[in-house]
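anyone else get weird line breaks when pasting these?? whatever heres mine. first is seq + tokens for prot A
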Amino acid sequence: MSDGELKNPVFKNVTRYATPDERDQVERIELDPKDLDGFMELLKKGLIEAASMHDAAVQGCMALNAELSIRLSRPVYNAETDMVEELVGTERVRGSLRASKVMKGDCGPEKSGSE
């Protein structure tokens, strides 16, 4: 059996782990721009939906603390165990967003002096 040949043919469509030499040659990972744009739209919708829970705040303008958890995974064939494993990358991002209420009948954000 050659090095590139999988022991278990059931996993033939699953990628293998890169060798250390192959990993040394990787400069970066690029995400598909269209896929990334789609996820950014989902993120934007999620942030807006989460912010809508703050309509009970007295303030017209507010700072919201945001914490986003990112998890990217994919199946990878492990030749040593002859099994498919899940390779997972995670990241937690924190920041703040300014938000303002738009009241019914208003043309824009509330202009009250309360912060």
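and prot B, same format (seq, then tokens)
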Amino acid sequence: MHWGITFYGLSEINLGMIRRMVHPGGLLSLRFALRAVAEATLSSLVQSDDFHAMTH
């Protein structure tokens, strides 16, 4: 159930970032920010999966 909340929150944050980053360098910054968010999300998913595997 936390997935919907997480992705809704991220989409709201990303919309705000897109509105602010209209200058040429902004899109590059947005790409790096999105990559960082994606990597953090994936790493937290892997960690939670490992924890679940260890405890069950």
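btw re prot B: The chain has a mean pLDDT of 71. The chain has one domain: 2-55.
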